[in-house]
Amino acid sequence: MAATAFHQAIGTLINSGFQQENGNTSLRLISNGFRVDVGLLKKGSSCSRGRSSVVAQASSSQTSVLNPVSSPSNNTSTDSRKKTNEAALILIRHGESLWNEKNLFTGCVDVPLTKKGVEEAIEAGQRISNIPVDIIYTSALIRAQMTAMLAMAQHRRKKVPIVMHNESEQAKSWSQIFSEETKKQCIPVITAWQLNERMYGELQGLNKQETADRYGKEQVHEWRRSYDIPPPNGESLEMCAQRAVAYFKEHIEPLLLSGKNVMVAAHGNSLRSIIMYLDQLTSQEVISLELSTGIPMLYISKEGKFVRRGSPVGPTEAGVYAYTKNLALYRQKLDEMVQ
């Protein structure tokens, strides 16, 4: 059943001091802080069945170590977007889960990380510890959320990731923060079922080798690696891409175009879908794209374009910060803060 859409600012991290522009419903940032529009979504996917799906879109996120910037409204024209600032986009596939370890089809089943997965998430955090992050998006599944939290615990900026809870008025009220100084040291975490792994239907919970023995290797390979052929009662990669890319374009891309730095912790297929969009891959090219667990991938958003900068290979890797002046300045600022 569809819920009535609503939009209001998240109370847990928002600071006062916004004012309305003449003839414009967007809010302008006066003091350090951010504004988030919240909306209930339809439960239109098998992945969201049984959940109250809540998403939040930040239209002006926390001020970073570098210069604060304001986010454009949803009606920002293409011409004005070309003048926006550079921003970093970090994509991380969650660390190894308990069902990855057991070689089971997981899909939208909510399974946590293994000890190895925890270690992978921590290492991923070390690799991005010098890259700015203003806001975090994760799927609604615990393995992606664990990865995001463990990764950010390693960041040198030492800001605390705070999950936004807007399930009810009471949840919003009870999760408020009343210290302005504390708010400045927090990073909002937005969870969205649209970033979930693709739903594997009747394969979920089955052993991959036993499934191949039962249905044949070719059939299972077609379900796993084709673009538009779903497993029984499940999603194809194409179906997963429709929801994941639509969410990225509506909620995440505007932040990047406005200069906000975003981290997305999600899953192999939802991230492959987003990378397909960013790199303009064909349906044939994307099916051969493999993403390792716990390995961050860096993109730079500038002048309306996304440029892949590879994956930071270690916490002290200097080369990644030489790609842009802003990243180098950010790392220099972090060095000054710890002296």
Automatic annotation (TrEMBL):
InterPro entries: His_Pase_superF_clade-1, His_PPase_superfam, PG/BPGM_mutase_AS, Phosphogly_mut1. Residues 58-78 have a biased composition (Low complexity). Its EC number is 5.4.2.11. GO terms for molecular function: phosphoglycerate mutase activity. The active site is at H94 (tele-phosphohistidine intermediate), E197 (proton donor/acceptor). GO terms for biological process: glycolytic process. Residues 58-82 are annotated as: Disordered. SMART domains: PGAM (SM00855). It is an enzyme of class 5 (isomerase). Keywords: Glycolysis, Isomerase. It comes from the Eukaryota. The record marks H267 as: Transition state stabilizer. The keyword Isomerase applies. NCBIfam families: PRK01112.1. Belongs to the phosphoglycerate mutase family. BPG-dependent PGAM subfamily. This is phosphoglycerate mutase (2,3-diphosphoglycerate-dependent). It comes from Actinidia chinensis var. chinensis (Chinese soft-hair kiwi).
